[in-house]
Backbone:
């Protein structure tokens, strides 16, 4: 019996609610309806009074979560789409992220962002917002790429005493599966070698890990051994594992679904350039989506973001440098 | 699970909060159990006198901060509550231990009445490392979230939903009877955060008291460029909450109206919106000479100085004579001078001993400095 990435998120929330009376879930349509993606299916029934529908007020949702956290609760906020976290941005970056630094009172809230593109999602239901949140001090940003990580990292997010932005990828919801729920996990802040190789390192996170693994499989048929590093969390970012991988391969390709300006791929390359410049046999490369809003039509969308094909092409190019 | 129930102030900080109980009432009070009843038993006269004394203290503290600012002793801005003391103190006095208070920038009097020590204001303005914000945040951004006194962020309206969340948490914990009070100004009512949070409180039927000090200007922007409704209290009906209006220059009216609003919220009446008309008797901050406030407005009823109005009321009612109010001033001035003298000898934060980590989970913080630390000057 297998379990999907989406079911893993649902199960993690059920376990958090069952294990800890301080946990509650607050978000639009999360109650009896079970959430826009059914990530809270039946939870309102199983945990009466602890899974609450919110008005369409992202600012007030996050503000209330901060207040509840001050009182010792551990709220989970579901944004219906990552894109809709922008009306709550102020409360996230100014209220939640600054609280501990200013007052020494921890702010243990988890904000779930259904992230990334799906075909037909268009400009306002497809965004990847991790870089914006990672920019602000006081936040932890998780980007699980597997159903196992979705489960264990969400549980860890609830347990952490700081605000956690939990970027769950919508493309992985149904297609990404695990054999069973994990009973143990790597600690947050540790990257994972998703595939070992000696010729080139691809650093990726979230859904791009899966596409990078598929590209690596293709390149294996051409005789190239690609190492794929899954960052798991982008803040904290496990520079040590990335640099150690580059030390083995000498070549770095960093892949992210978000826009190119600044962001995670730029951060990874900056760190490798400052801490491991001498390890590089070729200029580090990065692959992101195009620098436009995310298009609606599948013909445009599949070209807008990195794909198995474009990752493979970028890797071949880098191998020839 | 061990939930923190009541705000606990250190002993010396509790002093200002203690309310005098007249000897004649002592025997009666022993038969009353609840704090509410105790408050009701305090005569209106005593509450008024107490409110006036906090107003005097807040005014003199403000004057001192303004003078330190002009003397170059304060980094950043200084924001006074001049003209808003009656409204603010009435709110502070209406709350009881265990309640939540999210003051705004002109709530010095309400803070004192709620129990904030004079030292906190002085320490935060002067950047003492012993203050509640330890130099990490300044001036009016101060408080103790776990004790129900919230340190505001600068984004207006943002504290309302935080108080909502605290009240929701208490409902989860089956704690009832506590009230959350938030101060805001006329400008703050235009924000999305105000709208979202007041609607949220109404949907959740929370014991929230939202007090709008309509001081006629948001920085320099007059009411006419801020909102188009007849009165801000008209908003109450749209949100499905109780609305009240009060003359913010009149301590008597403020004590009655705020007292009712807080009592109604406490008894399950849902959110209460109170709109007070008054005039800011200073600039937005001490850097602002407020030249844009018309003389006719200053001469209008809203432009009365609430402290003077309250003092004249005391004399007229013979609740205190001139000698007594003079004594209140001397007493307050001494408290302020003592606090400033103490804080000026206290250490400033040391950047080289600072824990530069924004996370409570220290093991998850990253180090970005690759250079060796710069030597202290």
Residues:
């Amino acid at each position: 019996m297998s379990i999907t990435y989406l079911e893993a998120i649902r199960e993690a929330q059920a376990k958090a609610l069952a294990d800890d009376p301080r946990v509650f879930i607050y978000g639009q349509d999360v109650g009896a309806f079970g959430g826009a993606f059914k990530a809270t299916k039946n939870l309102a029934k199983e945990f009466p009074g602890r899974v609450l529908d919110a008005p369409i007020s992202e600012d007030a949702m996050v503000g209330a979560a901060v207040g509840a956290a001050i009182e010792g609760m551990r709220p989970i906020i579901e944004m219906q789409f990552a894109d809709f976290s922008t009306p709550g941005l102020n409360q996230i970056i100014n209220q939640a992220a600054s609280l501990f630094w200013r007052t020494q009172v921890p702010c243990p809230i988890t904000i779930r962002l259904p992230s990334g593109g799906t075909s037909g999602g268009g400009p306002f239901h497809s965004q990847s917002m991790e870089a914006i949140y990672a920019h602000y001090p006081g936040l932890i940003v998780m980007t699980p790429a597997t159903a196992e990580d979705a489960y264990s990292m969400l549980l860890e997010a609830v347990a952490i005493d700081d605000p956690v932005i939990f970027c769950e990828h919508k493309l992985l919801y149904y297609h990404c599966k695990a054999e069973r729920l994990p009973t143990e996990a790597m600690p947050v802040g540790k990257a994972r070698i998703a595939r070992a190789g000696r010729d080139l390192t691809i650093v990726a996170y979230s859904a791009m890990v899966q596409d990078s693994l598929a590209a690596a499989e293709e390149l294996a048929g051409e005789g190239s051994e690609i190492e794929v590093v899954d960052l798991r969390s982008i803040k904290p970012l496990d520079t040590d594992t990335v640099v150690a991988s580059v030390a083995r391969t000498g070549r770095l390709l960093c892949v992210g679904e978000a826009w190119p300006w600044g962001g995670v791929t730029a951060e990874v390359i900056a760190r490798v350039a400052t801490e491991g410049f001498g390890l590089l046999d070729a200029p580090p490369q990065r692959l992101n989506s195009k620098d436009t809003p995310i298009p609606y039509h599948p013909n445009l969308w599949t070209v807008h973001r990195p794909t198995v094909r474009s990752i493979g092409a970028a890797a071949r190019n880098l191998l020839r440098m | 699970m061990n939930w923190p129930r009541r705000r606990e102030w250190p002993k010396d900080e509790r002093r200002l909060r203690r309310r005098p109980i007249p000897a004649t009432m002592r025997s009666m009070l022993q038969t009353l159990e609840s704090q509410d009843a105790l408050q009701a038993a305090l005569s209106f006269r005593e509450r008024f006198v107490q409110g006036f004394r906090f107003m005097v203290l807040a005014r003199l503290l403000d004057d001192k901060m303004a003078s330190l600012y002009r003397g170059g002793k304060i980094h950043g801005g200084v924001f006074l509550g001049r003209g808003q003391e009656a409204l603010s103190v009435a709110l502070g006095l209406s709350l009881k231990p265990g309640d939540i208070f999210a003051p705004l920038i002109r709530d010095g009097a309400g803070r004192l009445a709620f129990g904030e020590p004079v030292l906190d204001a002085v320490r935060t303005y002067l950047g003492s490392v012993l203050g509640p914000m330890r130099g990490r945040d300044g001036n009016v951004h101060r408080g103790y979230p776990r004790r129900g006194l919230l340190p505001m962020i600068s984004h207006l309206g943002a504290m309302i939903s935080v108080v909502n969340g605290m009240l929701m948490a208490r409902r989860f914990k089956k704690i009832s009877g506590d009230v959350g009070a938030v101060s805001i100004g006329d400008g703050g009512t235009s924000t999305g955060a105000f709208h979202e949070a007041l609607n949220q409180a109404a949907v959740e039927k929370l014991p929230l008291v939202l007090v709008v000090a309509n001081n006629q200007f948001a920085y320099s922007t007059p009411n006419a460029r801020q909102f188009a409704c007849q009165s801000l209290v008209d908003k109450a009906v749209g949100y499905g909450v109780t609305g009240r209006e009060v003359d913010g220059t009149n301590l008597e009216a403020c004590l009655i109206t705020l007292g009712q609003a807080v009592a109604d919220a406490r008894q399950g009446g849902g959110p209460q919106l109170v709109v007070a008309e008054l005039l800011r008797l200073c600039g937005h901050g001490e850097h602002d000479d407020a030249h844009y406030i018309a003389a006719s407005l200053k001469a209008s009823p809203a432009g009365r100085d609430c402290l003077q109005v309250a003092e004249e009321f005391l004399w007229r009612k013979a609740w205190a004579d001139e000698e007594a109010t003079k004594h209140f001033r001397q007493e307050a001035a001494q408290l302020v001078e003592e606090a400033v003298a103490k804080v000026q000898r206290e250490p400033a934060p040391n950047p080289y001993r600072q824990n530069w980590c924004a996370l409570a989970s220290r093991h998850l913080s990253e180090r970005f400095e690759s250079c060796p630390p710069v030597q202290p000057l």
Notes: The domain at 43-349 of chain B is CATH 3.40.50.970 (Rossmann fold). The two ends of chain B are 49 Å apart (CA to CA). Residues 84 and 106 of chain B are 7 Å apart (CA to CA).
